[in-house]
Amino acid sequence: MYETNIKGIEEIVKENEEWRSGCINLIASENVTSKRVRKAMASDLMHRYAEGHPGERYYRGTGYIDRIETGLKEKMKKLFSADNVDVRPICGTNANQAIFGVYTKTSDIAFVNSTPGGGHISHHKSGNLGMLITNIKDLPLTEDGYHIDIEDTKSLVNRIKPKILVLGKSLFLFPEPIKELEDVCKENKVKIIYDAAHVLGLIAGKQFQDPLSEGADIITGSTHKTFFGTQRGVILSNVNKKEWSKIDKGAFPGSSSNHHLDTLAGLAIATNEMLEFGEEYAKQTIANAKSLAVSLDKYGFNVQAKQFGYTMSHQIAVDVAEHKGGNEVSKNLEKNDIIINMNLLPDEEVNKAKIPKGIRIGVQEMTRFGMKEPEMEIIAELIKKCIIDEAHIKEEVNKFRDNFQNIEYSHDN
User: Fold this and answer.
1) Which residues fall within 8 angstroms of residue 49, CB to CB, at 6 or more apart?
2) CA-CA distances (angstroms) from residue 128 to 70, 110, 122, 133, 136?
3) Is the preceding peptide bond at 253 cis, omega within 30 degrees of 0?
4) Complete edge-to-edge strand list for the sheet that includes strand 315-319
């Protein structure tokens, strides 16, 4: 029986904090905020409402909130070289909902990355896009499964003429071919929507790709993965004022009302941290991912996309079918305080989502705790001991993690 009284809940929160401080967290969609970000979140702002834009609110008493939001938007414009920014979506999926609602109607066709090919659920029939349209087609992939087949896609765009083409993935190892698809999309009046949820921090750090300059019409994203902010969403674009006005209405009142002002203040601080430390952090994150991939390969794991250098992002994908699959591997690692998630690989069927042969690993959180390439080699060895040697390594994991408790790439220390 779970304790649901106040004291019991507080104890659970404390236990989670203590447990997490001893874990190696390799979930690719998570990160940690600095102490200064956390402090900003625990403020009076969590009690308040601010519908509309700064200076044009439907509520009174928002003067200080207006200053925070206006400053955040200006910093985001600078960070991403964007003319237009909306910071009101409360998550990346909420940002997608705002955009999909503006650019699609029931009869339209959309091209997206398939679920096994890494596409996010919000792009598919059971997610945001599927609530608006039913004709959603998967983008063709090259034989390796980790890249879009450019020529086949061009042919399909010319023949089918979709309304939108959604790039960006949940399993996201390599940049998307925006430049290569820009001309054919413009010729056919197809909007390129780039979901940067996973790689927003790598883009901010100038280490992955620059979607807007390469030809994307709109970027959506989450601000808590490789972008080490609070859990919110963002929309970025260089479209004209008339088109941006439609996007603006998609964000409010289209997909949000009040937008969680405690996390807004936290995001404003994190964005300043990203401006100062983002390039260094993004470089180290990618270097760590490559190092972990090489080390796991050395220990005999079937690390994916080896012929392409394994990865160019914070993620790596591993086929663990010979070790009873992603579900069992992730459970065994969790028992030893290494946290990852199971994941479909491109050659699998969607109906295998709960028993996939793959795992997805992300290094962005451990990078923020100060780990570098030597630590990635140790993590690979720990995973090998747990999965291949079937050893109990929890105490070893906890002892190793004890040395990495301070959050780097911030002014906390």
Assistant:
1) 59, 62, 258, 261
2) 28, 12, 5, 9, 12
3) yes
4) 302-303, 315-319, 358-362, 341-343
Q: Does residue 149 contact residue 140 with C-beta atoms inside 8 Å? A: yes
pTM, full prediction: 0.96
How far, in Å, CA of 345 to CA of 170, rounded?
11
Of 3.30.9.10, 3.40.50.2000, 3.90.1150.10, 3.40.50.300, the CATH number of 278-401 is: 3.90.1150.10
Nearest 10 degrees: Cα torsion 7, 9, 23, 121: -170
Residue 352 has, within 13 A of its CA and on its CB side, a CA count of 16
Amino acid (one-letter) located at 39: K
Structure tokens given for 281: 């952090």
CA 150 to chain centre: 24
Instruction: Specify the fold of 37-270.
Output: Aspartate Aminotransferase; domain 2 (3.40.640)
Cα angle 65-66-71, degrees, rounded to a multiple of 5: 100
DSSP 339: E
Q: Per-residue pLDDT for the chain (413 aa), expressed as one digit of tens each?
A: 566 888 899 999 999 999 999 999 999 999 999 999 999 999 999 999 988 888 888 889 999 999 999 999 999 999 999 999 999 998 999 899 999 989 999 999 999 999 999 988 888 787 888 888 999 999 999 999 999 999 999 999 999 999 999 999 999 999 999 999 999 999 999 999 999 999 999 999 999 999 999 999 999 999 999 999 999 999 999 999 999 999 988 887 767 778 899 999 999 999 999 999 999 999 999 999 999 999 999 999 999 999 999 999 999 999 999 999 999 999 999 999 999 999 999 999 988 889 999 999 999 999 999 999 999 999 999 999 999 999 999 999 999 999 999 999 999 86
User: How far apart are the C-alpha atoms of 195 and 97, rounded to whole Å?
Assistant: 11
Q: Smallest Cα–Cα separation from 309: which of 288, 284, 290, 282? A: 290
Helix or strand (DSSP H, E) at 299: none
Sorted by sequence, the CB contacts under 8 Å of residue 47 that are 6+ apart come out as none
Whether the CB-CB separation of 230 and 72 falls below 8 Å is answered with no
Domain ranges of the chain: 37-270, 278-401
